[in-house]
Amino acid sequence: MTSLSQLDTPAAIVDVARMHANIQRMRTRMNELGVRFRPHVKTSKCLPVVRAQWTAGAQGVTVSTLKEAEQFFAAGISDILYAVGMTPAKLPKVLALRRQGCQLKIIVDDPAVADAIATFGKTHGEVFEVWIEVDCDGHRSGIHPDDKDRLVDVARRLTGGGMLLGGVMTHAGSSYDLDTPEALEALAGQERAGCVQAAEHIRATGIACPGVSVGSTPTALRARNLVGVTEVRAGVYVFFDLVMHNIGVCRMDEIALSVLTTVIGHQVDKGWAIVDAGWMAMSRDRGTAKQRKDFGYGQVCAVDGTVLPGYLVSGANQEHGIISCENGPGGPDTQIGTRFPVGTQLRIIPNHACATGAQFPEYHALNGDGSTEIWPRFYGW
Ligand SMILES: Cc1ncc(COP(=O)(O)O)c(C=O)c1O
User: Fold this and answer.
1) What is the mean pLDDT of residues 103-109?
2) In sequence order, what E strands does the chain have?
3) Taking the complete model, does pTM exceed 0.85, yes or no?
4) What residues flank ligand 1, with Cβ below 6 Å?
5) Per the structure, how many domains does the chain have?
6) Model confidence at 175: pLDDT above 70
7) What does the pLDDT look like over 248-257, one tens digit per residue?
8) Residues 296, 213: one domain?
9) Atom of ligand 1 lying closest to residue 236 CA
10) Does residue 273 share a domain with residue 311?
């Protein structure tokens, strides 16, 4: 049995009990709302995590790279939505996966790309299943739900070109800028209404548009009703992180991912302890910087996961993290070496679980009895 004290640091730790509780919480939510759930697996990129999501009733997965699609298909998952806008250059990889039996769905918001998909599909005798991306909140990409002409134009180019329109999908990414239940509820309503409206515009022309897919962790957890929606996607809920904590959708003690690190030195005159988790371990993500509480590069915890209030990773070089106390004097701290002797193990809760996880080739899954096991994850495109 390998315990935390035997691990090389830095290391990414997944608290298995918290992860299962997070999965269960989302499952209960989805059951209450009466919708299917298609987890976004870009958060973990890890088969044991996704198996746990599937065991809890997930149907299909969402991926952000074709590499994820290849890996999860090889592991036996066939129903996959690649939820990043398609480009013609990626179609041969999509074709190869579909030829192997993968029910890979792709998305588009651009008429010229819709044409390119249809042409490529016809040339290769393949009927691609394509979903139209809808921009429900001005966050990033997609067609505005009011832009009926463009929605219908893209739908016609796909179906007229012999492709299958799977449905419409949207992601209310602007939920990350909110932090009250009322605002999140309102955005979840807007996400639902916009995506349903887009589907109705297309259906009104006689084109079948069966699927309506929405989701982000904050809106999934705060939606009041999902009438007209056929499936929800969410990713970061499986681990949660400090950004989600600031948004108000998880407690600190629900965050399942942390970075195990070791104290390697001190700067007594500055009140610093130095650890071996810099930005290569935590990632450069400073997502909490613009939120109600800035956690620097992460919240410091004791090795058993107990939060050490006020102690943050306030700075980060490539392999060095700087720990200081935000409530402290901000100058010399003669106690810092006693409080955190060299060799002390600590755990750091990250700002953004997806970004921090991506810094590591594997997770160390921490079981209730203190033992750990290695859960490989993959990366790349
Ligand atoms: C298209 C799409 N769907 C779903 C999600 C899941 O969002 P979250 O990680 O907030 O659950 C994302 C996340 O970026 C996304 O890009």
Assistant:
1) 98
2) 11-15, 36-37, 61-63, 79-82, 103-108, 129-134, 164-170, 211-214, 231-232, 257-267, 272-275, 299-302, 307-316, 321-325, 345-349, 362-366, 372-376
3) yes
4) 40, 62, 83, 171, 215-217, 233-237
5) 2
6) yes
7) 999 999 999 9
8) no
9) 9
10) yes
